[in-house]
Amino acid sequence: MGIISRGFGGRRRESVPGLPPGQYLTHDFPVLSAGPTPRIPLDRWSFTVATETGEKKKWNWQEFTALESEDVTVDIHCVTKWSKLGTTWRGVALDTLLADVETAADYTMVHSFGGYTTNVPMEDLLDGKAWIAYKFDGEDLEPEHGGPARMLIPHLYFWKSAKWVNGLTLMNDDEPGFWEAAGYHMYGDPWLEQRYQGD
């Protein structure tokens, strides 16, 4: 008998007008992970942006949390078909992190503690579309939800909002990340139901 993670089944599914197609509303926050939950001490946390030319910019936790942060309220949509509406986060916009980075890259690879990766086009990180979030609902982000910090890209399926984030590599060409190499869609627009390759 297989193990079924919380969030994959057994829930009353509430359909709400205005959700992306195929999604149902949840009021809790399902925890879905491909492996064990990393627990990263703040004195070991860092975030690094590496450009396509090899230039690097790095922040430790104190430097990162000293950057201008934003409070945002967004809807989130998981590829396993749950949606959670009106979630509140605090984080640093990717616009802020990339403001002084010289690049002509069109694509990025997001990296996480534990080795997880996911690819995201550069244009989907800028213009107020994405954040590195470190608070959820007014509290420090719990490890099971990606704390101390996770990517937040609410207009894409939530696997693109990588948990336990620690870096971003800027790339000239698109490459698949962890789930994309396993058959998930390279982009992941919930409104187009881009769950898997070929969708």
Polypeptide structure, described:
With 199 residues, the chain is mainly beta. The chain has a domain at 38-70 and 89-192: Oxidoreductase, molybdopterin-binding domain (Sulfite Oxidase, Chain A, domain 2), CATH 3.90.420.10. It contains 3 helices and 11 strands, in the order E-E-E-H-E-E-H-E-E-E-E-E-E-H. The longest helix has 5 residues, at 61-65. The protein is globular, with a radius of gyration of 16 Å. Residues 1-10 have low confidence and may be disordered.
**Cα end-to-end separation:** 30 Å
Q: What is the count of β-strands?
A: 11
CATH superfamily of the domain at 38-70 and 89-192: Oxidoreductase, molybdopterin-binding domain
Sequence of secondary-structure elements: EEEHEEHEEEEEEH
Largest sheet: 6 strands, mixed
Poorly predicted spans: 1-10
Tell me the number of helical segments per DSSP (H or I, 4 or more residues long): 3
Given helix and strand content, the structural type is: mainly beta
